[in-house]
Fold:
Amino acid sequence: MEKGAAYLAARRVPDARIAVELLMSRLLRCGRLDLHLRREVVLSGNLLDAMRRGTLRVAAGEPVQYVLGEVDFRGHLFKVDRRALIPRPETEELVECVLGCEALWAVEGGKPVIMDVGTGSGCMILSLAIERPGSFYAGLDVSGDALALAQENAQAKGLASVVPFLHGELADVVDPGKLDAVISNPPYIATSVYEQLPGMIRDHEPRLALDGGPDGLGIIESIIGDAAIALKPGGHLFLEIGHDQGGRVGAMIEDAGYTDVQVRRDLAGHDRIVHAVIE
Structure:
């Protein structure tokens, strides 16, 4: 591991040590912390070759999550590949915000109808279905490739018959006033910023899931408007946003007729999640 971490660090791979630990823990089928208890384990020829191949792929700029083919999201393993964005820790906080919204779970019957717009790998909506079973969940995306990946994840979690995934825009697939909540991690990076992203992101993850247009707000504005129609009165909107977008997105949401607009910060202290209620 030491050699692998040094090799990646020399090639300026971010979080080189973590990448090596993730590769090794996958090969040995143990947790990262367990690696430190198994430091004397000698890799067999096949395992050593697999470790070398994985390390070379990461060194060439491929995200370690794609090399592994999976990511841990809130303690749940989901398949990931180039068809969808790699889930980030900030998005876990969005799910936590949804789970902590008492008013949402107190709807009549206690089974809210929740739509994940731009579902990608399906990690958010599937995590909700796992952690809060019994409600009505669905995922939506304009990317057929992403939807195929989300459906594979649903199948792997035994949720294929519980969480449907739909293709298209929110306004086209949901009648007015049908949803209790819309959740979304939309593309919110301005095009000029996207073009300056590290190659590990720009060259591997789908641009459709990252590039939010000239100011990064185009898709967000569309979701805000469509959700205002699709939500029931008193319905909830949860959005992940860029670190400098809180004020602008909050104003857009208020202009669209929402109330109780809250901009929440992530663990790094940046604006990250907006929660609002439609009148």
Summary: Residues 84-278 form a domain with the Rossmann fold fold (CATH 3.40.50.150). The first strand starts at residue 70 and ends at 73. Residues 86 and 277 are 28 Å apart (CA to CA).
